[in-house]
């Protein structure tokens, strides 16, 4: 594991599409009154009367909400509908209620919402210790990543496979704490993230069913079938992190009112609950996935970025930056003397190599075993120039090529 130096600046994170203008209300003619009403209800606003069939009066959740209200038209059948919508949106933008921001975000970019809630002891005034929120955030990120991995491929254990693309798919997801510190909400844009939300909900339901089956029969067979629904080592690990130290945890997925319910989905989607009694089964399932995921035969194309052997002759270890052939960023492999020499020459002239082998699950699919058939691969001039630049930026290569382990 590598650690970021303390003084190093953090990498900029791409903002959620709505983050830059969440407090600028969208134009009234771009807002569906029915969607606004559904979002207000979802985020705890209460309808307290209004002219039936024309508009409703909504007040925010929490104490002190009675002094603020919105008049929201039910449709655009009346001439003053746009005026009422405009006034309601401006009032939302000026509201101090945290839920008002969530409503505006969902209006700006239609998003499915994923909510996590953990039953933990609270402190004064119902607030949870900051460590509880940190644990919830960590578990939620693990779970989102597991859902993103499952949206790309099915596997009991992913390791390093697909991780870079899955992490990139989370860049537009916005996460915020819910009041009290025991809950968390994620806004997943429908245009880029609906497959993630759908797959995650299916996987959670499948995990719940597999746990119930194991506790009823003692058999783990249901976890094998659950892989097709998106259950994996990564998902079970995230559930363990979410449930550990609690009296129970709940995950709810709420579909975007603007986009509607996905095909085959239920409205509303049923919350999925887990308890401390599920932890032994989840840990056993995670270990089972880790142990039984098979190695994968591959033909990789990659650029040599590091070479090491104990002397001037003999076999050595080579590290490749993978260009094609597997969804992993880097692999290590041990080559015999002749293959090691070919890899070194290819690196010196700025060419990648192609190699056959088996991507081993042990170590997270980061090692290639039985590596054979190492040959240089011709590339276009632009790629070759880039590889040569990489060589010049890593001058320690020549020292490492013959250094001792």
Label this structure with key terms.
OB fold (Dihydrolipoamide Acetyltransferase, E2P); disordered N terminus; 38% helix; 3 domains; 5-stranded mixed β-barrel; 21% strand; 405 residues; 13 strands; 5-stranded antiparallel sheet; disordered C terminus; alpha+beta
Account of the protein in words:
The protein is α+β, with helices and mostly antiparallel strands. Helix content is 38%, strand content 21%. It is built from twelve helices and 13 strands. It has helices at residues 33-42, 81-94, 98-108, 130-152, 163-168, 190-217, 221-226, 233-243, 279-292, 337-348, 381-393, 397-401, and strands spanning 46-47, 55-59, 70-73, 111-118, 174-177, 183-189, 249-254, 272-274, 296-308, 316-324, 330-335, 353-360, 367-376. The strands form three sheets. A five-stranded antiparallel β-sheet has the order 5-6-4-7-8, with helices on both faces. Strands 9-10-11-13-12 form a five-stranded mixed beta barrel. The protein is elongated and about 85 Å long. The protein starts with 32 loop residues before the first helix and ends with a helix. The relative contact order is 0.10. Residues 1-22 and 394-405 have low confidence and may be disordered.
Largest sheet, strands/sense/barrel: 5 strands, antiparallel
Any idea what the shape is?
Answer: elongated
Q: What's the alpha carbon Rg, rounded to whole Å?
A: 26 Å
Helix content: 25-40%
Which secondary-structure class do the elements indicate?
alpha+beta
Strand content: 15-25%
* Model regions low in confidence, pLDDT < 50 over at least 5 residues: 1-22, 394-405
- How are the strands of the biggest sheet laid out side by side? 5-6-4-7-8
**SSE pattern:** HEEEHHEHHEEHHHEEHEEEHEEHH
């Amino acid at each position: 594991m590598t650690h970021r130096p303390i003084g190093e600046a953090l990498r900029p994170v791409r903002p959620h599409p709505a983050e830059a203008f969440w407090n600028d209300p969208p134009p009234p003619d771009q807002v569906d009154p029915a969607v606004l009403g559904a979002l207000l209800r979802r985020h705890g606003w209460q309808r307290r009367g209004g002219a039936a069939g024309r508009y409703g009066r909504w007040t925010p959740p929490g104490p002190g909400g009675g002094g603020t209200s919105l008049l929201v038209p039910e449709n655009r059948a009346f001439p003053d509908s746009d005026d009422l919508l405009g006034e309601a949106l401006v009032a939302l933008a000026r509201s101090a209620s945290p839920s008002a921001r969530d409503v505006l975000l969902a209006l700006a970019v239609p998003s499915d919402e994923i909510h996590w809630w953990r039953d933990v002891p609270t402190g004064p005034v119902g607030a949870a210790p900051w460590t509880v929120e940190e644990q919830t955030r960590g578990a939620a990120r693990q779970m989102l990543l597991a859902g993103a991995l499952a949206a790309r491929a099915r596997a009991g254990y992913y390791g390093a496979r697909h991780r870079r693309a899955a992490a990139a798919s989370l860049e537009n997801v916005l996460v915020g704490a819910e009041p009290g510190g025991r809950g968390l909400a994620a806004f997943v844009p429908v245009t880029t993230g609906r497959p993630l939300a759908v797959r995650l909900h299916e996987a959670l339901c499948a995990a719940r069913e597999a746990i119930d089956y194991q506790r009823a029969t003692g058999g783990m067979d249901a976890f094998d079938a659950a892989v097709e629904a998106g259950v994996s080592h990564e998902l079970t690990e995230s559930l363990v992190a979410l449930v550990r130290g609690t009296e129970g945890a709940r995950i709810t997925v709420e579909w975007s009112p603007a986009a509607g319910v996905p095909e085959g989905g239920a409205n509303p989607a049923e919350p999925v609950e887990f308890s401390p009694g599920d932890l032994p089964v989840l840990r056993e399932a995670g270990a089972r996935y880790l142990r039984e995921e098979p190695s994968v035969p591959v033909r990789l194309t990659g650029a040599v970025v590091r070479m090491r052997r104990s002397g001037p002759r003999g076999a050595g270890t080579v590290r490749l930056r993978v260009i094609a052939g597997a969804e992993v960023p880097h692999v290590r492999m041990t080559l015999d003397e002749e293959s090691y020499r070919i890899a070194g020459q290819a690196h010196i002239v700025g060419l990648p190599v192609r190699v056959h082998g088996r991507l081993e699950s042990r170590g997270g699919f980061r090692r290639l075993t039985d590596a054979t058939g190492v040959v240089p691969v011709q590339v276009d001039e632009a790629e070759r120039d880039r590889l040569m630049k990489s060589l010049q930026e890593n001058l320690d290569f020549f020292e490492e090529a013959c250094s001792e382990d």
